[in-house]
Every structure is written in structure tokens, then in C-alpha cells.
Amino acid sequence: MYFGLFGMHLLFVISWVVFLLLLIKAVQNDTKDKVIFTLLSLFFMIAVLGVGTKMMLLNPSVSKSGNWLHVKLSFDILLMIENLILAFVVFKKKTISSKVLEIMFWLSYLVFMFMVFLSVFKPI
Fold this sequence. Notes:
Blueprint: H1 2-29, H2 34-58, H3 68-91, H4 98-121
Helix pairs in contact: 1-2, 1-3, 1-4, 2-3, 3-4
């Protein structure tokens, strides 16, 4: 059961990454797809949170395996806050400068890659 959840978690994380990055570009270019990207990114964000929580409940020893998980979860929280801010921007019809959105895009991309590195190699 744990490895099945792990596979689902990976699929949900990849989907969240794709839709979050698409959301940032859709907000930057002011396309009509930004609402659907917002809803999909929020759905997969919640799915990642739910499946990840279930995995930690099934294997609580992972939380004592090193600081890598705590660092990874801290970055997860930051990306979730970013996703919620973007959802607020889309639904309240606010604007963010194109330069800020470009920085958000590349920082999000790099943070996701760093989180993959932490999950695979567990360096700390």
C-alpha cells in the first residue's frame, strides 16, 4: 500500500508542478486558461498534501531519518503559499508585474528540482 501511495504522490507532484508553472505563465500572459490552471493546480496541491500526509502516517520513522524531509516540507509550504497567492490574483482579478511572475516561475522550477534532489539523495 505504501508504494502505491508513493507512486500516486509522485504523479500528483508532477501534475502540480506542471499546472503551477502553466498558471504562472497564464497569469503573466493574461490568457483565458488561467482559471482552469488555477483550479487544477489547487486540486493537485491538495492531493499532494493528502497523499503525503497519509504516507507519513503509514511510515512515521521517515520523519526521524534526517533533516531533508523538514527542509523539503518547508519548501512545500512556500510553494503552497505561492499557489494560494496566484489563486487570489486570478479570482480577484488583480495584477502582478511580468518581472515578478518571471522570477516566480524560475524560482518555483528550481525549488521543485531541489525538492526532487532532496527526496532522491537525502543529503542532510
